[in-house]
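Researcher: Here's the sequence for the chain we discussed earlier.
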Amino acid sequence: MNKEALLKTYWGFESFKPLQEQIINSVLSNNDTIALLPTGGGKSICYQIPALIRKGFVLVISPLIALIEDQVNELKSIGIKSMYFESNPNSISLSNQLDNAIHGNYKVVYISPERFSNPFFTEQIKNASISLIAVDEAHCISEWGHDFRPEYRKIRDIIELIDTEIRIIALTATATTKVQDDILKNLKINNSKVFKSSFNRPNLFYEVRGKNESTDLDLIKFIKSKPNQSGIIYCLSRKKVEDLSELLVINGIKSLPYHAGLEKKIREENQDKFLRDDCSIIVATIAFGMGIDKPDVRFVIHHDIPKSIESYYQETGRAGRDGGEGHCLAFYSYKDIEKLEKFM
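Model: Thanks. This is the structure I predict for it:
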């Protein structure tokens, strides 16, 4: 099947989104490739379709297990064989996983950067038929990026231990010129084809309001003006997340908290309830959201000012991924800036 037929058969789309086809053609022409596409721009298809066309499998390096699990389940649901390496399996389990990857006829295999840097994994995966390595959320490579992960900077060295001929595609929805240059340099793909789409999201409406003693009341009124709509509220501290979520519940709004201080099981349950529409609002720190594929989020509220413009773009980009309208509301106070300065 050609790429257009695969797009229709597996995803049900009649045509590609902007730059998707050019990126896929670049990968299939054996070029190292960088794809800079906005949130909701369809980055995953840029390596999933080449995976279906080529022999072997695409190895995807991705930063969050929750994101990996979502993507594996989605691929399985449309009939594409996919798997992921568990984060901390024992040696027997890891050996079984490697055997499944090497001999299991999988087309897309996901792994965390920490597992990818495991020497046992590196040695064993040399026997696998890897058609492409996809580095997802590639801004994590850069120490200038808003979500720096040290393990990402080891990726190129590990690839050279496995096979120096493997092509790379790096994908991100957030990359300033400095971050982009750092990705090129660190992955040693200076001759790569670079595709950059417009990051304007015309379906998103941006609004800033001053923060004062009536902000929580304003926020409740705003949410109640959008009944049965899903939204995310970002706060700077875990305590504010807990307090605000409780305030919303007291006011008859189905809300759950999400932050790194909660037990993993509770975080996962709260996220699943939000994805299943069992609750309409998640109040969260920035621990929530990367790669969350809920297309019908209608609004994103920043109760506190975000840490950077890149973070703000990434977080507000979770609204309106289905192409429908999204409202991005930020409450601003100079006291928030002072808090960030103290953190720095």
